[in-house]
Amino acid sequence: MSENKRLFKIVEIEINSRCNMACSYCPNSVDERVEQGDMEDKTFEKILDSLEASDFRGIVSFHFYNEPLLSKKLAPFAKLLKQRLPKVLLQIYSNGTLLTKKKFDELREAGVDAFNITKHEDVKPNYIFDKTYEELNEEERKRVIYNNYTQIDMSNRSGILEDIQNGAGEKTPCLLPSIMMSITLKGNILPCYEDFYQKLVMGNIHQNTLEEIWFGEKFSNFRQELRKPGGRLKNSPCDKCNCFNLPVFRYND
Ligand code: SF4
Ligand code: SF4
Q1: Cβ partners under 8 Å of residue 73, min gap 6
Q2: 3-state SS class at 176
Q3: Which pTM does this prediction carry?
Q4: Do 18 and 26 meet the contact criterion of CB atoms below 8 Å apart?
Q5: Which residue has the CA at smallest separation from atom 3 of ligand 2?
Q6: Ligand nearest to the CA of 66
Q7: What's the CA gap between 91 and 79, in Å, rounded?
Q8: pLDDT 10s digits, 198-252
Q9: How many CB atoms lie within 10 A of CB 194?
């Protein structure tokens, strides 16, 4: 199948805007998210309608610079997603500060398949997820990727954190828009998780389906350019971005 005909494999959904940390290597340390609050049910349902219509079987996470465990909608949204799209792999990215064993069990029950937990720079000595991890059995641990922030490949977050260098430059192709999309609180579709200021809006779920937006001229041309060496220079903030990683989404099953 030609690259232009391939559907997205990863969908990141911003179900809430807040984080309870402000790590120095995150845009949350310098500014606030563009959209504030919690995702409305009707926006989430619209996304599900669209994913269902596409028979989507890829990976979903509820993350875009937020801590999803701060949202009361996390478990209900997880449950709804897995009821309607049982073949999707639902992965939660979290800083682990609120992830007790009880919460872990509740989220597993709601349908969360995997957890990607990062222990960040400013965690307190009684950091909750250290204790939770001790309580997990072998099978449960297979569903957890547990990293210290020092193990993560950092980026400059589309130029917002200029001091973070990683060797990627303007000639490095970017494949993120070829495999994923991020959906903001209000249903704006972005081509990646680096676009903190939402400069690259490809469409909105309240106006078009995800497939229409993904295969539309704007998104298709954008991803084609980014696949070429030097393609980053054609757009802002790609021209300042040094991200070249693809998201981690497997669990150790
Ligand atoms: S915990 Fe994650 S989302 Fe929150 S400030 Fe740190 S890096 Fe950013
Ligand atoms: S170059 Fe950076 S900002 Fe542009 S699409 Fe790729 S990851 Fe996103």
Answers
A1: 15, 16, 38, 39, 41, 44
A2: helix
A3: 0.95
A4: no
A5: 238
A6: 1
A7: 13
A8: 999 999 999 999 999 999 999 999 999 999 999 999 999 999 999 987 665 554 4
A9: 23
